[in-house]
Specification:
Strand content: under 5%
Number of helices: 3
Mean pLDDT: 91
Number of domains: 2
Helix content: over 70%
Largest sheet: none
Length: 73
């Protein structure tokens, strides 16, 4: 009986650790992406310039707004 209880507790601990680790990692990743966004206004200007377009500040703001709306989903 003691062996079955020990195995059950070990499996339960592993499962709880995996679930807790997943949610902790997800929360940390979201926080990191909010503090250090991968796309900035400079990146957007560079990408548009490489495509042969001279972006106005209004266009850059529109793209940033779209990106922020999509990240919120």
């Amino acid at each position: 009986m003691h062996l079955a209880l020990a195995i059950f507790l070990i499996v339960l601990g592993i499962l709880l650790g995996a679930v807790g680790g997943f949610f902790l990692a997800q929360r940390m990743m979201k926080k990191h992406l909010q503090e250090n966004p991968p796309i900035t206004e400079d990146v957007i200007v560079t990408m548009m310039s490489q495509m042969g377009r001279k972006p106005s500040q209004k266009q850059v703001n529109q793209v940033m707004k779209q990106i922020n709306q999509n990240m919120g989903k």
